[in-house]
Amino acid sequence: MEPLDTSDEDFCLYAGGLGTILSLACLVQVFMAFNSHWFTTIISILFVFTAISYIMLIMHHRVAPLLVLISGILILLYVLLLVYLFLTATAIVFSWILLLLLIYSNLITIVVYAKGLPKKFNLIAKKAKEEKDYWNDKL
Predict the structure, then answer these.
(1) pTM of the complete model
(2) pLDDT digits (tens, 9 = 90+) for 81-119
(3) What is the 3-state secondary structure (H, E, C) of the chain?
């Protein structure tokens, strides 16, 4: 018996897909708006990491909830840095799509843990490992 029902699978698919699209949109925005700089590279890595965490959520990987949580925290820190720079008049640009990604990441993290998906993902990984071990002994 599969631990994920169709609503959980649909949630992972749609939430991961939209999160990946938002992350890649922020990545494109960084490349379009900023010059080549070491800070741009770090921010680009943050958005690639966020996209990978949402792709892992689509694949029902056992570390996906933790990665989504970490990416949400990192995006929060980045937004706080931008707000600080915006308020001190160092930067005059603020990204609305980044704010949308921040809200979306935090909401998805809350829903993922409220639905109990980490436990279900661990059960899927455990069953896959048991099946792999079973077939390794047979072949």
Answers:
(1) 0.87
(2) 888 877 887 666 678 899 999 999 999 999 999 999 999
(3) CCCCCHHHHHHHHHHHHHHHHHHHHHHHHHHHHCCCCHHHHHHHHHHHHHHHHHHHHHCCCCCHHHHHHHHHHHHHHHHHHHHHHHHCCCCCCCCHHHHHHHHHHHHHHHHHHHCCHHHHHHHHHHHHHHHHHHHHHHC
